[in-house]
């Protein structure tokens, strides 16, 4: 099945009309010269992306309690707490994914998540406790969720392409929870931002 797909793709590109000197010609010749290396590269890309998000999720289990403690709004604090529990599940699901692949769960430092968490930390350090700081925490937290949504969406798509349906559904479960966490934050921002802009106390 897999080799048929590869052969099919080769046949299609070979029978495509030739364009002299165009970028299409260059990319066709690259396809031909790389040959079977493609699949090896793709599984390494998939594995590296898994290691990246595994590091990111573990890093978040340390950051979320600090964000919860810093939140002034009770609903925001509770949302961080419940997402911490989900995040612990995300770590376990990724361990299941590694297991399904027959690989040892390994984390690779994710500079993007390190930076996003750092932005939240800066908000905590730079502003006084109150609704305005909560608004900054929500901005930081939503950037984090969007990074995760992008990572899981891509991983899920690749798992499907590899015919790894069980892995795809594990990744999809997490992707959905990240999406719900993002929506919840949008909902809470309605009150928090309102208080930050118009409230008298702790604004
Ligand atoms: Fe997560
Ligand atoms: Fe998340």
Provide structural commentary:
Helices cover 83% and strands 0% of the residues. The protein is an all-alpha fold and 203 residues long. α3 packs parallel to α5. The radius of gyration is 22 Å and the shape is elongated. Residues 83, 87, 145, 148, 178, 181 line the site of one fe (ii) ion (FE2).
Task: Write down the secondary-structure element order.
Answer: HHHHHHH
Q: Count of DSSP E strands?
A: 0
Query: Which ranges are low-confidence, i.e. pLDDT below 50, for 5 or more consecutive residues?
Result: 1-27
Rounded to an integer in angstroms, the radius of gyration calculated over CA atoms is 22 Å
Question: What's the helix and strand layout?
Answer:
Elements: H1 2-15, H2 23-34, H3 37-70, H4 74-100, H5 111-126, H6 131-161, H7 165-198
Helix pairs in contact: 3-4, 3-5, 3-6, 4-7, 5-6, 6-7
The protein binds fe (ii) ion (2 copies).
One fe (ii) ion is lined by residues 83, 87, 145, 148, 178, 181.
Short note summarizing the structure:
With 203 residues, the chain is an all-alpha fold. Helices cover 83% and strands 0% of the residues.
List keywords for this structure.
203 residues, mainly alpha, elongated, single chain, binds fe (ii) ion, disordered N terminus
């Amino acid at each position: 099945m897999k080799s048929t797909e590869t052969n099919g793709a080769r046949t299609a590109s070979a029978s495509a009309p030739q364009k002299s000197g165009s970028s299409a010609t260059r990319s066709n010749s690259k396809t031909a010269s790389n040959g079977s290396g493609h699949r090896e590269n793709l599984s390494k890309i998939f594995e590296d992306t898994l290691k990246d998000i595994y590091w990111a999720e573990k890093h978040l289990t340390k950051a979320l309690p600090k964000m919860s403690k810093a939140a002034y709004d009770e609903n925001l604090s509770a949302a961080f707490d419940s997402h911490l529990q989900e995040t612990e599940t995300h770590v376990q699901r990724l361990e299941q994914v590694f297991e399904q692949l027959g690989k040892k769960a390994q984390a690779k430092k994710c500079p993007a998540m390190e930076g996003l968490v750092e932005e939240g930390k800066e908000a905590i350090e730079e502003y006084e406790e109150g609704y305005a700081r909560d608004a900054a925490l929500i901005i930081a937290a939503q950037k984090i969720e969007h990074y995760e949504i992008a990572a899981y969406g891509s991983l899920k798509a690749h798992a499907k392409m590899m015919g790894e349906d069980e892995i795809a559904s594990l990744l999809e479960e997490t992707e959905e929870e990240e999406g719900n966490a993002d929506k919840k934050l949008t909902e809470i921002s309605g009150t928090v931002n309102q208080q930050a802009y118009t409230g008298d106390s702790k604004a």
